[in-house]
Amino acid sequence: MSETPIDEVAAGDLEALHERLEREAGEVSDRAGWEALRLAWLGRKRGRLKALMGRMKEIPPAERRAYGQAVNRLKQAVEARLEALAAALEDEAAAAARPALDVTLPGRRPRLGALHPVTRVSRAVEAIFTELGYSVAEGPEIEDEEHNFTLLNMPPGHPARDTQDTLFLDGGLLLRTHTSPVQIRTMRARIEQQGGGPPIRVICPGRVYRNDNDLRHSPMFHQVEGLAVAEGITLGDLKGTLEAFVKRLFRPDTGVRLRPSYFPFTEPSAEVDITCPFCAGSGEIDGAAACGTCSATGWIEILGSGMVDPRVLAACGVDPSRYSGFAFGLGLDRVAMIRYGIPNIRLLFDNDERLLRQVRG
Ligand code: DAH
């Protein structure tokens, strides 16, 4: 880099010198290279620009002015290039000196988890009923026919058994088709306790299973069973309790309607409808469009219920001449779908994180 004067200098080829500057600057990788470059071009004694200026007297007077300006432009280019190169080298050195771990950087926020919509609804139901004096009980998901059917007034051969597409296991066992067997287990356990028995107020949330699979049914879903047994319990208590419950769970103006129905373990039995929480029972959204949630009927069916059949009480050791009770069974998945506007039950069990983020609210 120091072999001056050089061909281009000798030839006064200023264009070629600009190119040469770029080429040599591109090869500089450290401070020593930078200093050598500076000396080669701007050195007071042997620098290329010094040599070019020295040739001024050989230039014909008419061309001297233009020549001088061209040499000046080259000098400015050299100076600018050296300055940029120095800044780049400095940045590189600073980056190399920086520690790999910058402890002054703000931390990364951990991603927040969220409860599953069914868990949220289950907890909401539990909270409401515990305030009403109920306790929470659980039972096994693998049941026997005795608890799942027989003691609930569905003896072998009873046609109602066929309506619950049961998944049978070996040895007389099955996956429970509803949470109602927990009624039986709870009553029996309470009766056996010293000073136990009624009054009994309990809810039993949990998974249940049926051989059923489409947009509205999943082979595994969730129910919560409710049971209240005491002296003098009436259908009015059932309706009042359900009203208090749905007003808390949905909205304060929610209305309740009991429709006569049939379940083997209750007598009388009722299906319970509530006014649609989206259209407030009007069947219309904004006074115009048909409400899609309730199919414009204004009502949504959410649970089955009734007065506990005296035979069920008796089978559990509760004296039906003294005590009465009501029971109900609510589909938690269905409530979650209504509450969060989830159209397809499978979305609940796909484990797609986006669903959780949407319902986190
Ligand atoms: N076990 C019923 C089912 O899964 C739901 C049910 C209806 C539960 C009426 C009850 C009841 O406790 O009284 O279809």
CATH top level of the largest domain? Alpha Beta
**Helix content range:** 40-55%
According to CATH, the homologous superfamily of the largest domain is Bira Bifunctional Protein, Domain 2
Tell me the major beta sheet. 7 strands, mixed
- How many independent structural domains? 2
Helical stretch tally? 13
Number of strands: 11
Report the mean per-residue pLDDT as an integer: 92
Gist of the model:
With 361 residues, the chain is of the alpha+beta class. The protein has 13 helices and 11 strands.
Structure description:
The protein starts with 6 loop residues before the first helix and ends with a helix. The chain has helices at 7-11, 14-27, 31-42, 48-54, 61-97, 117-131, 145-148, 160-163, 181-192, 235-249, 310-315, 332-340, 353-360; strands spanning 135-136, 142-144, 173-175, 200-209, 220-230, 256-263, 266-275, 284-285, 289-290, 299-308, 324-331. The chain has two domains: 6-97; 117-360, Bira Bifunctional Protein, Domain 2 (BirA Bifunctional Protein, domain 2, 2-Layer Sandwich), CATH 3.30.930. The chain has a seven-stranded mixed β-sheet with strand order 1-4-5-11-10-7-6, sandwiched between helices. The mean pLDDT is 92. A hairpin with a 3-residue loop joins strand 8 (284-285) and strand 9. It has 13 helices and eleven strands. It has 361 residues and is of the alpha+beta class. It binds 3,4-dihydroxyphenylalanine.
